[in-house]
Amino acid sequence: MRAGANAVAAAGWKSAWDLGMTGRDRTGSAVAGRTTDRADPSVSVESLEAADDRALVVAFLDGRREAFDIIVERHRRHVYQLCFRFMGSHEDASDLAQDVFVRAFKGLRNFKNESSLSTWLYRVAVNVCLNRRALKRPETEPLDPAQHVDTRLDSPLEHVLREEKALVVRDAIARLPPKQRATLVLRVYQELSHEEIADVLGSSVGAVKANFFHALGNLRRYLQSP
């Protein structure tokens, strides 16, 4: 059993992944097998599935644990993709994506609706990935956000993406310092704006642009080197 799965068991919640991606059992009951006394049985599962993320968070905090399974089902692919682009390994990405939702399950009460739920989940995912990468290889390239900020950053991406060969590019991305890698993945693959990335990383827009500029430069250099 993965470390993430152990943490899930400790939290009293089985992920939708461990239940064959169903999000609930055959009876439509909560994944944990019960709901709390605060749960509102008048709200059907179908209504929850049609609800927006904020309503799902409210329902979950009110005791509807199946609301969290819908959150997982709705966001698991993007969280996994972010972890995979960041780590370059399906095994690591699966384990870390699991950990993201374990942390989300435990920490949703701290979600303040100041940003979208997806942004909050990305923030959790990036922190989880940064922590794992720090254990494997420490960051060695500090960045000065005030240097070399290029506002014309989008056009080179079209060339990079057209010429992308998955394995080569993945290896090159893996060589980037963690914050450069996080910025590049969020900008290119998750298609977040500089402002959204700043929110995810807890930094300024200027720092995000600087990280992105350096990431592109380093990526080109790695791809051009023999």
Question: Any overview of this molecule?
Answer:
The chain is an all-alpha fold. It folds into two domains: 3-136, RNA polymerase sigma factor, region 2, helix turn helix motif (Rna Polymerase Sigma Factor, Chain: A, Orthogonal Bundle); 155-224, Arc Repressor Mutant, subunit A (Orthogonal Bundle), CATH 1.10.10.10. It contains eleven helices and no strands. It has helices at 3-11, 45-50, 53-61, 65-87, 90-107, 117-136, 155-162, 166-174, 178-189, 194-201, 205-224.
Short description:
By secondary structure, this protein is an all-alpha fold. It has helices at 3-11, 45-50, 53-61, 65-87, 90-107, 117-136, 155-162, 166-174, 178-189, 194-201, 205-224.
- Overall geometric form: elongated
Q: N- to C-terminal separation?
A: 40 Å
List unreliable stretches of 5+ residues.
1-39, 138-154
CATH top level class name of the largest domain: Mainly Alpha
Total helices: the number is: 11
pLDDT average, as an integer? 75
CATH architecture of the largest domain: Orthogonal Bundle
The assigned structural class equals mainly alpha
Please tally the β strands and state the result.
0
Helix content: 55-70%
